[in-house]
Amino acid sequence: MQFKKTSALLLAMGLFSMGAAQAADQGGGTVTFSGSLIEAPCSVDPDSKDLNVPMGQVTTAALKSQGTAAPVRFEIKLNDCQNMTQKVKVKFTGIADSKDPKLLGLQDGTAEGAGIKLMNDNGSQIDLNTGLSSEVSLTPTTIISLQAALKGSGTDAELKAGDFTSVANFALQYN
């Protein structure tokens, strides 16, 4: 009888300790918050800070004779704008195309013979590293509408099909 009581007590203690162990760790992790405090009339919306603009599939035929593919629209959104009398422009910097320095060069990948033409919403070109977008008046939430398109930059023989990834940085200039 003593053996049954001791066994029952040990079994109960084992179940209790298993339940306590399970209750102690029921999953978790960490949350890291990061950002920066800036001295500017507006803040860049978190969704606009690191944009990804899919250019889709473009045929080499569309880029022959330094042709331009259909543009893809994208936006830079600014939040918490304070000074409504100011205007903002965007400057793009990056690695230029080897044949046409006004274009963003195709970087990682195997595609060749083209670059990325950056444009204002009206289709006028923004030269990489030197040009500025059109001015946009500030509102509490400002949207800067832009476009990008693949453009042939060399001879037709230099066009080579393949994938690419290109990165441009943008900086805001207020006045």
Protein architecture, described:
With 175 residues, this protein is of the alpha+beta class. The chain has a domain at 66-174: Sandwich (Immunoglobulin-like), CATH 2.60.40.1090. It is built from 3 helices and 11 strands; from the N terminus they run H-E-H-H-E-E-E-E-E-E-E-E-E-E. 21% of the residues are buried. The mean pLDDT is 89. One of its GO terms (biological process) is cell adhesion involved in single-species biofilm formation. Residues 32-174 form the Fimbrial-type adhesion domain.
Q: Could you estimate the helical fraction of the residues in percent?
A: 10-25%
Outline, from the CA principal axes?
Answer: flat
Question: In angstroms, what is the radius of gyration?
Answer: 28 Å
**Could you describe the largest sheet, including whether it forms a barrel?**
6 strands, antiparallel
What is the average of the pLDDT values?
A: 89
Beta-strand segment tally:
11
Architecture of one domain in CATH?
Answer: Sandwich
Share of residues in strands: 25-35%
Distance between the termini: 91 Å
**CATH first level of one domain: which class?**
Mainly Beta
Ranges with pLDDT <50 over ≥5 residues?
Answer: none
Oligomer: single chain
Structural class: alpha+beta
Instruction: Give the ordered list of helices and strands.
Output: HEHHEEEEEEEEEE
CATH topology of one domain: Immunoglobulin-like
Number of helices: 3
